[in-house]
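From the pipeline queue, job 12 of 40. The input is one protein chain; the requested action is below.

Action: predict structure.
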Amino acid sequence: MTAASTEGAPRPRYLHAQLRRSSSTVLRILLGTQLRRLRERRSITLEEAGRAIRASHSKISRMELGRVSFRVRDIGDLLTLYGVTDEADREALVSLVSQANTQGWWHSYDDVLPSWFETYVGLEQAAGSIRNYEVQFIPGLLQTEDYARAVVRLGHPAAPADDVERRVRLRMARQEVLTRPDPPHIWAVVDEAVLRRSLGGPDVMRDQIQRLLELVALPHVTLQVVPFSVGGHAAAGGPFSILRFSEADLPDVVYLEQLTSAVYLDKPEDADRYLAVMESLCVDAEPAQETGRILAQIMTEL
């Protein structure tokens, strides 16, 4: 059996050197992507791959999407099936398994972190840029503690106080990406209604607007406001986020949150469509240099 061709794709050794500091979520996705490419180059079906590790085709699909943890034995069996015989290449991929299975800090919030949101938090921590469009709330990374508490209570009206506080603590912990040495570029576009809806009361909103004024002064935070005067616009479907990564093998991911679940889109054609909508929103919105003035005006009206 000969080694599978890796022409046109990064070799496992390169992935290993490049990704040793990446988050476990990103590592799972990239390891899954590499496995999918190896499988497709050999024209092996999901069913055939599943039989090789004594599992279903759906497990192979989840592995290739980075949605489940990996077992060293399974990776070894798949690499054999895919014709990867070079020991250095095999070791490079197998050695990623333990890192990919490492739980992130957010797993300590499993009691309040829905499984469908867990992937997003991991991606958020690894993203180089995050673009948000919001129609109802201030984006989570830009919320004050009191505003976040009001949002949590609105979404979980029957939750006990301890549960509410755990959810708020999780949101505040996520915001630490803004102050790390290599923060992601946050580019948020919000409807004017987001800023004028007095969530939590006037005092909470004043503090929130003040927080936004501080954040937009940072070089890695951009905020634009879509005024009421625009009327209808390209994002009629609702809020969404686009996450982009420095890793060449990781595609843009579009995140669409629903009431009790979420959708992750990573096909280039889907991402391109949402990127086009985001660009249109940025054109419709007031220029970023006007955001400070808009926030200050709203502050006087609270």
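Job complete. The radius of gyration is 22 Å.
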